[in-house]
Design goal:
Rossmann fold, Chromosomal Replication Initiator Protein Dnaa, Chain: A, 3 domains, five-stranded parallel sheet
Length: 304
């Protein structure tokens, strides 16, 4: 009760989304009715429910859970009607003793365009920030990721990577992927010189979102599935899996909105995209092999 709501904030790339999704997964394992959604999904669902005269159904979905996890809360900023709807959703859940977990990129009071009554409620429980990892933690993350990929990295390479990226776990993993990919392509043993060469070409623009077309081509090649099949209507198992992977990477690496992902994948609606992304997210937590597959696809994307 003291931690309701729990509001978590940090800079991008420090694991807020992963944490919320892990909480939702664990809740499901112990039979707690949990719902993880992004604020963008909440807004889109709300707009759709109005357009289709199904607001009662929308409210049942969001107000019948025991645990609601809302990611990217800052997306609600300046969206008046959606904020009003979430205000009443929040009140309904909180008054019934349901747990609410929120995540954003800044503290509640600092979110632009957020109504004071919502900001106030976001601070009723516990507000916690995720600080950038210290060197020891960065090294531990790199060791764990290298072990997942069955790659042996000398300690001086690990320290070089940990020193290069200090405030973004996603970027840290990206540097590791780049070094591994470079070593494989050049058939080199990973050492400090190879790591430096692999990362020398990195500039601030290299951290830009991945190219959507390159992602789809890499997925198509990896699964030996024609791109037309991925964007088409086939329900064959291998094609559906490739399509879901494409959805996940377009959201995570290309940073596309749900609507954009749906358009690229054959004009699919946002709820279909959400289902695909969440399916891969859950699978990643449970299956390390899928993480290795995604690493290979990402390595291909970086060289397309």
């Amino acid at each position: 009760e003291d931690y309701n709501p729990l509001f978590i904030y940090s800079s991008p790339g420090l694991g807020k989304t992963h944490l919320l999704q892990a909480i939702a997964l664990r809740a499901g394992q112990i039979n707690i009715n949990a719902l993880y959604v992004t604020s963008e999904q909440f807004v889109n669902d709300f707009i759709t429910s109005i357009a289709q005269s199904r607001t009662d159904e929308f409210r049942r979905r969001y107000r019948s859970v025991q645990l609601l996890l809302l990611d990217d809360v800052q997306f609600l900023g300046s969206k008046g009607k959606s904020q009003e709807e979430f205000f009443y959703t929040f009140n309904d859940l909180h008054s019934n003793g349901c747990q609410i977990v929120l995540a954003g990129d800044r503290p509640p009071a600092a979110i632009p365009g957020m109504e004071a009554r919502l900001s106030s409620r976001f601070q009723w429980g516990l507000t916690a920030d995720i600080a950038p990892p210290d060197e020891e933690t960065r090294l531990a993350i790199l060791m764990a990721k290298a072990s997942e990929r069955r790659v042996d990295l000398p300690i001086e390479v690990l320290r070089y990577l940990a020193d290069r990226v200090r405030d973004n776990i996603r970027a840290l993993e990206g540097c590791l992927n780049r070094v591994v990919a470079y070593a494989r392509l050049t058939q080199s043993t990973i050492n400090l010189e190879v790591a430096r060469k692999a990362l020398d070409a990195l500039t601030p623009t290299a951290a830009a979102p991945a190219n959507p077309q390159a992602i789809l081509e890499a997925v198509s090649e990896y699964y030996s599935v024609p791109l037309a099949a991925i964007t088409g209507k086939s329900r064959a198992k291998q094609i559906v899996e490739a399509r879901h992977i494409g959805m996940y990477l377009l959201r995570e690496d290309a940073e596309l909105a749900l609507k954009q992902v749906g358009l690229l994948l054959g004009h699919r609606d946002h709820s279909t995209v959400i289902h695909g992304v969440q399916k891969i997210t859950r699978a990643l937590i449970a299956d390390p092999r899928l993480s290795a597959q995604l690493t290979e696809i990402r390595e291909s994307v970086s060289h397309l």
